[in-house]
Amino acid sequence: MLRANPIFSNCVSRQTSCSGRAHYRDRVQTRLNACTFLFFLAVAFGPPALAQEQDNIWLGTTTAWGTASNWSLNAVPTTDHNVKIPRRANAATLSAASVARTITFLDSLTTGTASIAVGTQTLTVGTTGAPGNITVNNNGVLSVSTGTVTLSNGGSMTLNSGGSITLSGAGTINVSGDWTNDGGTFTPGTGTVVFNSTTAAQTIGGTATTQTFNSITVNKTGQTLSVGGSTTTLTLSGTLTLTAGTFAAGTATTINVAVNWSQATAATFTAGTGTVVFNGTGAQQILGTLATKVFNDLIINKSAGTLLNTAGGTTAITVGGNLTQTQGNFTPPATLNVTGGFTHTDGTLTAGTTINIGGNWTRNGGSFTSGTGTVVFNGSVGQSIGGSAGTTFNNLTMNNASGLSTD
């Protein structure tokens, strides 16, 4: 019987071991070669390209926003594109929901209009980390009928001299930045502008001294919308809806409201030293879930025979300044607090349960329906009941150490 030579066996064993080591060495070398190849590609061609913002200019061969050949990048705008709209014969007309990073209307070329027609569609501007700003310059036109334009991520609307924004129907513009009117034309139609940033304060401002909207909605929990810049008069031909956050009169000495004032419990109105005027041609209401609505000066100057009253959760109105009823009828809630005086020229005042007044009561016309209510004179200085028209009270309480007189 043959036996294996120990020396030979040891040699075979060593050869097997050497073969295993060689195989391992080859695998390592293969991986090193692959890494070297990838490194070469990275050096030669750089890392994979990331999407970057680009200018995409409207060419306007036809009116279709959604046609790639109408754009300088031969691509329909995405959220990576800063859209530029120069003056062209054809407006960029939306036929579907559309997006952009920013939009600028350019006063370039010599003919045509720099125009976007949103119509009934949705246009969303802005993306993560990039405010969706829209700038409407001279000869620029942004038109919306019942569609929606949203300026996201802190996007601001800037309307410069010679530019225009037109809401021809009940469209909506959502703004998360500022609204700046530097001499342009805003035609609000029956639309609504919504201020909705919950991360930053917002301003209605610019060089325009008077700004007119249809309806404004303030829905910005924990933040404030203020009137600023040169704007001293804010006029609403529709409704002011305060859903959440704070609305500050700021530089506005006068806020005109033609329809309703709706204020929820989560919303605050900072009146400053300004005046709110209810001047509608039809019925108006002060409503919303907030129990006590607070104003500085309050004026009722409506079409004759039309009524301003309260609804919803409104149980009291506090006027920190003066109450003036020039024309139109007014039915306050159960409690009406007036820190200053009351001047009545025309229309009917129908009392609730209690009217507290800290200044003078002056009636020169109109009528006062006292019902079963009480008028309390509670000023800190002498007060008077006067005017060219007499007043008949139901209950009258004097709570003023300085006295009450009649003129």
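(the above was protein one; protein two follows)
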Amino acid sequence: MTTSRPRKIGLQLPEAERVVRWSEFRQMAQLAEAIGFDSLWVGDHLIYLPPDGPPKAPWEAWSVLAALAEATERVELAPLVACTAFHNPGMLAKKAATVDEISNGRLILGLGAGWNRPDFEPFGFPFDHRVGRFEEAFTIIRTLLSDGEIDFHGAYYDLPNCILTPNGPRGGDLPLLVGSIGERMLRATLPYVDAWNVWFEDFENDPIVLRDVMARVDRIAEDVGRDPASFSHSIAVLVGVLGSTHRPSVYPSKGQRPISGSASEIAEAQRLLRRRRRPCANRPDTHHPRGDRDSCSSRGATQVLKFRTRLAQHRKRRRTQDAGLRTSSPGRGPSGHTQEVGARARDPRTGAGCPRCHRRSPRGPWWLPDSSRSVQRNRAG
């Protein structure tokens, strides 16, 4: 049984694109809260070493979260995501409980294993066995937050009779989020977490690829006995606002382009990203956009063709504008474009069958090339 969840929009605050002093950081957070954002997110990294530039680094994440908890009143706060290797897991649980107390129950505890080697070795943290270390740390953190105590003896951590007191205002109800697409990480966390997050580079900032990623996550959830509808699916999307200047990357981009355009165009892209997929009766390993689970109906196929047509028209319009040209009809593609997209939607290897069952045709990066941020993240696991 599926349940609908209200959609929330969050904002990740600057990380290492440039040095942002606390006074400006606070102003950004308060403005984001005032204009209606639901949550604010802070990256948890220690240093970046770009191959063609000087070292860059953000402020320490938990100190910033504590300050944001006092500077704001309504928005939820979260690390995206907190690396369990940077702190003893007992201390990390203590930090989370403290920030949740300062914020009056507004913390979302995002957790991950880390991926950026310069975050580890220069600061004395081991980079090996990251997922194994994460599994033990995750067990310790969630147990301390829910039960208040643990007697743990593992391969990497030893916490004899560790007690967490005082606990935050929500205790064991503090929401946990995992940021990973690794199967081992997901199998260890999905039975317990309240939310899952995917970084935009892990789905190429593309709604079609995103559906494949989400379908895989949902299958793993079902394998471990968790209803995919029982936890939130959150998406880190790269967005470029018209009129904004280029936001430099910390590391070279993989080529993903931001969702960009007018407010209505960005909203349309967000709507497409939100679509869920269901298994196809003809091919159980294939998931489809909303539609009939029992058959590949012509109505469902038409919906897919319309979606791909809109996406192709949007790409063409943005490419034309980027080239300094103007289209005579910004909302429509050229004559015959729908037929062309419809033909491409059919599998060239078979030439027949339900378009919803076929893998998408090759396509390049989408929307505008001016990136607001592109940081390589190869998640552990």
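Reviewer note on protein two: The chain has a mean pLDDT of 77.
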